[in-house]
Amino acid sequence: MTRKLTALFLALPAAACTHVAADSPQAPQYGAPTAIASSEAAQGVWQSRGYGYILDVSADGITRYQYGDTCYATPEETKALSEMAGAEYSLVALADDGRSARFQLLSGDTRVTFDRLDALPDACVRNPDTSPPAVAAAFADHFERHYAFFDRRGPSATQRAARLASLDADSSDEELWQALAGYMEGLSDSHTKLIGVVDGEKRRVQDGQGETLPHIREGIGENKFVVGTIVGALEQLGDSAHHVGNDRVVWGTIDGRVGYISLLVMGGFSDNKDFASEAWAEAELAAFDAIMDEAMTAFAGMDAVIVDLSNNRGGWDRISKALASRFAAAPFTAYTTQAHGSGIAPFAHVVEPASGPTYTGPVYVMTSDITVSGGELATLAMRQLPNVTQLGSTTRGAFSTPLPKPLPNGWLLELSNETFAAADGTVYEETGLAPEIELDIYPAAAPVAGHWQAVEQIVAMATTTD
């Protein structure tokens, strides 16, 4: 059991880190999304608003170019570094004037507005310069154009670019890597990372892991921590315990009075491995709905429900919103999104109550500084509901979609380019979502035992009667 849990958990970050974003439904009018492969009208060259992409769509498929100060096709070797780097748009909704379109990875997922170009820019067909200064220049250009949070995670792009000044044509891959890593130092953004192969070794630069995870990794180790908290919850839930969704969800009832559900990630619940396909999306949503239908039926009439996101590592935003829909009595705005540099107004994401069983009694959402990305979006959405109380500690503060930007030499940069805001316009990037009630869920001396002790404190709050 332990090895199975460990193997599954280590695979979680690859589940699905896509974020739902969209532009405001302004004129011109767009038709219904259709498959790009079957749309002759979609063929041609398109440039994105924001995102820095040019697409060359033909009957043979899509060639994606990274566009900025330079233009180059996505290197093939980059696609092996990340599932998102290799994912391609499958749907398109054309405007009535034929001059703009919305491209989507999946139905209901990110909609990115593109404008039609008459031809592919000449710069895109030239062989890209892969010298260290050219790679560094493309890297810095991507950051300057698309990174949304220099105001929250300084210093500025200009100041950081100065850290690349020592590079020249004779610089080694190691020197280039160290220079790019130096540019990123201090960002404290777990959604912004550099992945590449240097001298045959795969490397990653990623900051912003909070305090709890680094402490656990240096202490008992992350695998022992994850397995320990899961096994502890299953033991405490006893005969009511369910461990489902490829071991990513634990749920049950406590003393017959309080429902408990813990999600480690927002995805990976099905056995479908065809990531970013419609079949994958349908399988994921079906698996999640089946889990929630059974759990919410069991929670009917309970004094309260605890939604444990304190060890949630993020995932697919449609799951985040689907979770919130199970606790809503009426439609509500969960949050808004806006892509940096797109010129498109923030788009409001409205959550409708689920068609399956719901629970509208008292809900307690557990968070920590491990809670990140899709886990934070679920928390942000649920905080809009009058029956929800957030407890624990402040979340990580990394909401934005990781925008994949391959570099000319095949390395992959991912950076935060979208601003997620609460319905009132408040942005919690970097600061995180502070709880209404502080609880030390993972105390440094005993993070595994402390987890269920925190659950017990919440149960006591939820079942106290006058």
Automatic annotation (TrEMBL):
Coiled-coil spans in chain: none
Residue ranges of domain Tail specific protease in the record: 287-438
Domain of life: Bacteria
Keywords assigned: Signal
Entries under CDD domains matching the protein: Peptidase_S41_IRBP
Signal peptide (from-to): 1-22
Name assigned to this protein: S41 family peptidase
Species of the source: Qipengyuania polymorpha
